[in-house]
Amino acid sequence: MKSQKSVVIFWDPSLYFFPKLSSIIFKAFNIPRNKLLRLIFHISFRFNLPIVQLFYGDWKNEIKDADIVVLFEWGYNKQIESYIRNVNKHCKVHLYYWNIVDDNNKVLLEKFSEHNHIWTTDKNDCKKYNLRYNSLFFTKRMNLPLKTIDWDIIFVGIEKNRGEYLVELKEKMLVNNMKCKFHIVKNQRRSNNDELDQHMSIQYVDYATYLDMVSRSKAILDIVRPGQIALTQRSMESIFFRKKMVTNSEDIKNYDFYNQNNIFVISNNINDINFESLYNFLNTPYVEIEQSIIDSYDYEGWIKRFLDN
Questions:
Q1: Contacts of 152 (CB under 8 A, 6+ apart)
Q2: Looking at residues 266-270, what average pLDDT do you find?
Q3: Could you give the residue range(s) of every CATH 3.40.50.2000 domain in the chain?
Q4: Which of 3.30.479, 3.40.50, 1.10.3130, 2.60.40 would CATH assign to domain 6-134?
Q5: Exposed/middle/buried for 260, CB within 10 Å: 0-12, 13-18, 19+?
Q6: CATH class of the domain comprising 151-289
Q7: For the segment 126-145, what is each residue's pLDDT rounded down to a tens digit?
Q8: pLDDT at position 57, please?
Q9: pTM > 0.70
């Protein structure tokens, strides 16, 4: 039987692990460096002008014989969807919300042609907007460098209104003899707070540097916003890199990869965290999970769920 061809379109496939899937995941637009052409692109994109087609990415050369095309919400454009449907009338086109539905992207629910082909990573959004569910994914093609372990746990991320919590958590971990590496990027929209800002950085960490940090740590810290149940990039890294994870997500216990030996759930209230138990958790070995579970979160397992529906 002929294998089915899939094409995935994302705004910026240079991010995260996407370069490992460069033959499958394509940039939505080739945005020019020339200032005038860049201005023309942004105007045509914002106002959905036909000239935006001049800036389409290399996906346009791949869709003629595609069986499915998955459009990430980050990079979706109504003209792209229409172009695909005109060039290949037989392929199925899906819209995939990599992020939760919010005020910035909610309009896409109305713009996209087929509501029953809209998917999301967030089960709450599935219920709220009657969407289909597909998890986040990662790739087995991504490998960690082998390094000596320097830290018990690391955190890398933007503060996102959780700066005080992160700083206090780090201080408590240090007091309880845990080796920590926290790189908290300041939210530039927040007003200055000298006491808090001394623990922050204005520098982002590129993904290669971040992976080097992960390779030198026993565990990854993942702090989600209140009420979030969608999986995170950090949870995928934990699974594929076989690193322990500490998280404030209670919902993580509902996933098939959850193992209390590998995932430690902490309270949003610092005073309710048992740091002795956390210390003991970080000093016990990682327990392998079934390969079939890992495979289901690999790109191949993820795309298969689109192909099967």
A1: 173, 178, 179, 180, 217, 218, 219, 282, 283
A2: 97
A3: 151-289
A4: 3.40.50
A5: exposed
A6: alpha beta
A7: 999 999 999 999 999 999 98
A8: 97
A9: yes
